[in-house]
Amino acid sequence: MASDSDSKTRQVVTRFAPSPTGYLHIGGARTALFNWLYARHHGGRALLRIEDTDRKRSTPDAIEKIIDGLDWLGLDFDEAPVFQSDRAERHAEVAHKLLEAGHAYKCFATPEELEDMRAEQRANKQPMRYDRRWRDRDESEAPDGAPFVIRLKVPTEGAATIQDAVQGEVTVNNAEIDDYVLLRADGTPTYMLAVVVDDHDMGVTHIIRGDDHLNNAFRQLPIIRAMDTIEGGWPDPVYAHVPLIHGSDGAKMSKRHGAVGVEAYRDEEGVLPEALFNYLLRLGWGHGDREEITKAEAIELFDLDGVGKGPARFDIKKLQHLNGHYIREADDARLAEIVAARIGPKADVALLTEAMPVLKTRAKSIVELADGAAFLFASRPLEMTEKAAKLLDDDARHRLAGLSKMLHVQNDWTIEALEATTKSYAEQLELGLGKLAQPMRAALTGTTTSPGIFDVLVLLGKEESLLRIDAQVSPTGTEKNE
Fold this sequence. Notes:
With about 475 residues, the protein is mainly alpha-helical. It has a domain at about 380-480: Arc Repressor Mutant, subunit A, CATH 1.10.10. The protein has helices at about 5-10, 25-40, 60-75, 90-100, 110-125, 190-200, 215-230, 260-265, 275-280, 295-300, 315-330, 330-345, 350-360, 365-375, 385-390, 395-410, 415-430, 435-445, 455-475, 475-480; strands at about 15, 45-50, 80-85, 105, 150, 160-165, 170-175, 180-185, 205-210, 240, 245, 310-315.
């Protein structure tokens, strides 16, 4: 067994090992992030393993979504993914080595016998645990050709202790762990065996995962330690069990708290990858009062001693605030491409790029950006929101008609010139600028919210702006000006 000094000199190797039975869960994404950052911080390697042994639930689509989500977050792994389903022969090989060395045994108990055993334990309010009935029996007592499973011979005396990098020292009595199955009757490996073998063969030194797997560590250690006595070179990994993410009500994060998949935050919530990266980093890990941390800074700062022992609470408002920050920091051309993909074929990337400085000032999501940009590509006659339609009463239309005459002869179509003209007209009418600006906004965008009204005029251009205003002044305005 390797000493603590040995583990410190080994190159750090971490792994993220999702089961592809659905989307990339937000909790899984954070686990992947912590593994990736720890490896990068220590100059090690971060690996990806797809635990696809549940063939009924593991689908190519789910695998693709998980890998796509990791790529989107910017988590690049150092080798091609390992697929657990490809390694069944290797898993079985280790099980038979354990059997031959006396660390495992054949169990011939039938399903009916095991169910009777569990029923008796339930009736007596005992722990539901295999009673080791075949642990010391001779195989000759079983009927010829009877099916069997291979069970691990777990130590029954003493206790196992883990120096967990997050949870601290944790001890479990060996008597609390039953002799669980390594190989099923059909020769297929169980999850518990496959994980240990794969971690060893991949050279994993640090297992960073959710604290719901803490009990599994005590079930997996006996395999590691038995194999180390058989062939050597099976050191204990360093464990770091990270508290789970909870919703705002303190319960484990689930669909009732809102979106739980990374793709939903990307596609439905309109979150930028750097914002989610930053938010997940701060969800259970901290460095002073720092909130906004770049990827490069995260690699420099991240270590396991910054991970808290208590569950982190997911706060969508904090994520939205952070997303707004990264939207304002983002390159305008990049944002334009993202928004154009959401709007569709009618989107003009060049126009969106020009508009982005004024569109992104208050937006907290790509969804808001796309909604805010929709007026640029709206077809006439504009579809009006209920609030916008109320602004266009007879008085407002009359004022817009007068303004339209002034704008038709306006040659300098700049923000400063348009503002001066509109203010001058408002003063003639002895009105505040808002009395003109709000009906103008409704006529130009079909809504009551938009960038500054003079920004809107410039972005739409003179011809389109006047066509939209005149369409509201007169039902035939659009036709006359076209």
